[in-house]
Amino acid sequence: MVAIVTFLYSNIMPLIGSTVHTKRLKLCDHGRICLTTFAYSCLVSVIYHIVFMIWMIPNVASWTDFLYSVLVCVVTLSILFWNGIINVYLFSVQLGIKHRVIGILCGLIPIANLFALGKIVKVVKDEVVTEESKYLLNESRKDKEICRTKYPILFVHGVFFRDFKNFNYWGRIPKELEKNGCKVYYGNHQSALSVKDSAKELAERIRNIVAETNCKKVNIIAHSKGGLDVRYAIAKENIGEMVASLTTINTPHKGCEFADYLLTKVPKSIQNKIATTYNTSLRQLGDKNPDFMASVNDLTASGVKAINEDIGEEHLDNIYCQSFGSILNKATSGKFPLNLSYHLVKYFDGKNDGLVSIKSFPWGENYTLLTVKGNRGISHGDMIDLNRENIKGFDVREFYVQLVSDLKNRNL
């Protein structure tokens, strides 16, 4: 009876009155309910069979019924467990690699497996609640198109990354903006070049977008080194009249002092070997002529100082400029390798996001420093949704929705 009730509840109830709207979330929620039901059913089954066993001790003939009951429950609970775990492992985004590995390693360890299962259920439940809330929010404001700006958005990536088709540098952000009426373009420039050379590529990209779409101008959102690239392009490549706004995200406007230190301590032979390996690999991924060392040198404090002097007085009278930065409150809250670089950056530059210090972020008319309560904070990668992680206290997708909505309100 316990097995039958368990099976029916976990497989039929999720299909009745479910308020989850997307297929992926329905499968995640189904898996969560299966695992939750499995845990409680295990407890009920154990108590039931202990009572059954005590009751039948005087009656030896009842052992057959007992073993049959145990077998039915084991089979049913196994089906329930694997139904749930397969669904959450396949369709959950927030579980990530860590929780999946922990679940596998703790699977056969008593007590530890219960804690691992509880954590998995909680993560998936939070994911379903968060994503369903976002779905409903976007549906409620769909007609308003709060991100339909006058000029389209151009996303400009940072160093050592490309605008890959199957792995978006900006995570879930562009789709969230598009759901709210935004038109999105990408820089499509190479992953590692000097600021000067990246600026040339971006300037050409902007000219092409304006010519092909007749949009006249673009709103640029640039992350990390991308902010320096765009500033240089505006100053030196005569595209200022094609830029309505420039928002820099965690850009090292004053460079990174720890990078100067590394370049003086790491032998040239090792630097050249790393550069050769990187440049060779990125050519295979689509870069025409990547230059690892040029990009690294342009991110040092001395390198950015020279760039700022070369740019000179920036004539940005008709361009709305703003900057954002973030801070990790504790090194261990950053994903690898930012949890390691945090200490090095802090030693030379002070508080930082794992790569760039807070003193290097400010630029433009408005500057905002972001963080969250507690130990976590917000890393360099978190600001572009690199890990597709839902961070408590900071909804990165909604942050960009409100950022772009503000641009719309400014008639940009």
From TrEMBL:
Source species: Ruminococcus bovis
Keyword terms, alphabetized: Membrane, Transmembrane, Transmembrane helix
SUPFAM superfamilies the record matches: alpha/beta-Hydrolases
InterPro entries linked to this entry: AB_hydrolase_1, AB_hydrolase_fold
Transmembrane segments: 33-55, 67-90, 102-121
Matching Gene3D superfamilies: alpha/beta hydrolase
Domain AB hydrolase-1: 151-288
Protein name: Triacylglycerol lipase
